Amino acid sequence: MKLLDPKIAFAGLAAGVLLTADVGLLAQNQMPEDEEAREQTIIVTATRLRQSGSQDIKQFRSLSLDGEFLPRPESLTIEGLLGEYDLALPSKSECDQLFCIAGYAAEANLPTRPQDEYFVGLGFESNADADALQKEPLSLIAVIDRSGSMSGEKIARAKEGLLQAISMMRDGDRLGIVEFGTETNLLLPVTDIGGNRELIAETISAIEAEGSTFMEAGLRLGFETAFEELEQSGRKTRMMLLTDEKPNVGNTDPEGFMGQAVSGSRRGVGMTTIGVGRDFDNALAMQLSSVRGGNLFYLATDADAPALFQREFFNMVTEVAHDVTITMTPSAGYKLNAVYGVPNEVLTQTPAGAITVTIGSAFLSSNGGGIFTSLETTEVASAPPNEQPLMSVAVSYTDARSGAAGTNSDTVMLPGGEVPQNLKLAQALVDEYLSLSGALELYHAKGDAPGAYRMISGLSERLGGAEFAGIGKEREMVAGLLGRAGALAGQGDVPAEMRHLGVIGRWEVTRQRGLNDVLRGDTVELTGDGELITERKSGPEAGREVYQTFQINEDQMHINYTDLVFYYRLKGEKLQLRGKNGKTKLFLKRIGS
């Protein structure tokens, strides 16, 4: 029988931390001894391995194209970026087991990391029968956040996702629904899909958002319902949490939620988190998805739910392997510099320089991918790199269904012929991640707007000359960030809709009228994070700083939590603000960027 092209991807690897692990930082960092801390996750893309189930790049794109300022660097992850592309590498031989590993190398071309000489991609094949795995009877416990913060588009998006899920489920599958807000309720006891689709759809459609966010209670009831269903049915049982992740009642500590997820996983119930809304708390969700059996997806726009659930629903609920360990051992004369696509928490380094990636769970996915690393030469090698291995790689794992253990290995050399196109694409995406995260770090941590602009401008030129299909969205996103960076730095061709960002910088008050808390000579700083910092420069309160926040559009500036709304006019190095009532005015001159 011909199998579906099952691709195996590692889901939830991100865990909300830096996703480009600088290997030089790992020498003293061994994996924690407690089992809970080790339980990270993968995602399986049916025959080939993909590095993540965290779809946070959609959130970053939304911030990049619709937000007013440059996003913070932690909102961008390499896993999310790589996860949008099928980066499957060619197999070297027929795979007759759950995981087979194949490594490919190329000359490195990463402008932000000139020390890297070679770029390596690790691809994965599998003989997993995706069709059979997806046809296993499923009991799904949906836990939906109906708190006030979910009102409007968010609750509509979450309901749209659930409605799409029931359209994908088969008559023999079962669904239960828990809703939480101020109170928690078993809205729909676990019910057969067959014969009840209309009732289930009406129940979902009637959900309305209101109240506080008692997520702790929602997860507790969800897991209790799942445990009862698993015991009674003995079938695959999984939780699905749909939320904007803003708990404000009960235990709001991430460790409390992590404890519930770990306990659920140990009892056989994993959890898929569906993040809803642009202001979704990605860090908390990625911690939840890092638990063994967890993964994370994101609904950024109204159109996302049908596309996501049609493409990935049965993949996101299908665990394939556990306890996956990938070991990369450089040959004599070479050193592993960085690993792209996994956080420090899942890496260990031996004194000899080998790197081990330890991941808890693997799922099916529609995109193929891999894990990528870079190397440099530490001494003169005994033979050219195309005549001896740069490194060796090995994978070990446990089959999630049978419990059987398996292993596979490969050696990595520079190719004698053409480099796989997907390896070139992966390196271009890694370059994009490194350049954007470096630029955002320059701006937010060091206040270096010109430096950020230069880095993004260089990336924009490289992407413009790249010949890869389907990267138009990268060019569009980088162009949006370049416009914002140019506005903040006072450089480049700033789009008209971005010109209001020219107010960002440090200003001195030259005169004012109708304002009690600002004097001539005071300084006002408007930051790219939306902060307004006023410092008194004279009188008995000299040195006092007042911190506020603001919002701005093409015409007006609003000081948050006040009734102050100004029309503003920017002309060269001068800024004039006029109150809507015409009685307040503030005149400033620029003294710094």
Describe what you observe in this structure:
This protein has 593 residues and is of the alpha+beta class. Helices cover 27% and strands 31% of the residues. It has 13 helices and 27 strands. An eight-stranded antiparallel beta barrel has the order 20-21-22-23-24-25-26-27. Helix 11 (421-446) runs antiparallel to helix 12 and helix 12 (449-464) packs antiparallel against helix 13 (472-489). The longest helix has 26 residues, at 421-446. The radius of gyration is 26 Å and the shape is flat. The chain starts with 6 loop residues before the first strand and ends with a strand.
Give the topology.
Blueprint (H helix, E strand, L loop, with lengths): L6 E4 L9 E3 L12 H4 L4 E3 L2 E3 L6 H10 L11 H5 L17 E8 L10 E8 L4 H5 L3 E8 L7 H16 L5 E7 L3 E9 L4 H9 L9 H19 L2 E8 L10 H13 L3 E7 L5 H8 L4 E6 L4 H13 L2 E12 L3 E7 L6 E3 L5 E11 L4 E8 L13 E9 L5 E8 L8 H26 L2 H16 L7 H18 L15 E9 L9 E4 L4 E5 L9 E8 L3 E4 L5 E7 L2 E6 L5 E8 L1
Parallel strand pairs: 7-8, 7-10, 10-11, 11-12
Antiparallel strand pairs: 1-16, 2-14, 3-4, 5-6, 6-17, 8-9, 13-16, 13-18, 14-17, 15-16, 18-19, 20-21, 20-27, 21-22, 22-23, 23-24, 24-25, 25-26, 26-27
